[in-house]
Amino acid sequence: MNGFLSTTKNEEVAKMFSGDNEPRDNYASVIFELHIQKPLSYTGKSFIDISDDGNLMSDEEEVLFSAGSLWSIEDVRRVEHLWYVQLRNCTDRDAALDAVLARLTNGYTLMSIGDLLRELGENDKAEDFYRHIAEDESNIPDDQKGFLNYHIGMLRAKKKDYNGALDSLNKAITYFPPPIGAYVRDSSLKLSITNASVANRTTLYLDIGKIYYRNKNRRKAEEAWKNAIAQGGAFDDLAKVYDWLACLANNHGEYEQAKEYRRKAMELINQCVGKEEMKCELKRKWDDAIQLCAQMDDRLKPKRQRTTSGSKVPT
User: Is-above-0.85 flag for pTM?
Assistant: First the structure.
């Protein structure tokens, strides 16, 4: 990045440039205090003190920083009507900076920009960004292609463009390898790769089934969820699949089948560590399924008795 950030060592000069003596509606005067450490090296950036170089503006005691310098916010305080923000420079050996950059970039800087736009609710911009990255397929590893298509598909689904969503999600599946093992106990144990907690073959088929479910296409929804189960994977992911299958069966009056799906969901989630909220929710649904089946059985008893009493005994 070209350009410099102009600062001063003189607080009175800083106050003057902050507009301290010019009150304005909806604006506040802010002084940024830049605290410099003396590390072995900076994060690719530099600064220079030009206060004593004999220039005409030396009374401003100016220090220039590269415009791309990185800073962490240490403190924010207000003194009367003036705000002070204390900043500390970040270095190559700054552990906190490494952690933040690792979380934001997630191993792929361009992907992280799209993720940030999506988190900010800028879905159109995020989708455009993902599509822009996806255009250069030759330089993108397969797992990144999978996540790009996954995110595009989910953004399409939010816009109710279900055909576009299905196209992208089905394309994403082709880039995800099948699970190494049949089952793992918890999705938090998945391989630590980019967005690993967001999508895998099991959850992709789960999301595809949800789209068909919203379109009232029972056959396709059921087919997608059974494909999800066939993938194996994390117990909590599979429990979610059985939960949706139970909803589908329940909506079609297949209460015994729904109860069986609820039972399988409970068995799976109970093998996970933690997940207490999900366990409580699935337990509630399991209890409701048992109660509903009992009620339906009670309603059918008189009918079965009449059928039995009215039947002829063969001679």
Answer: no
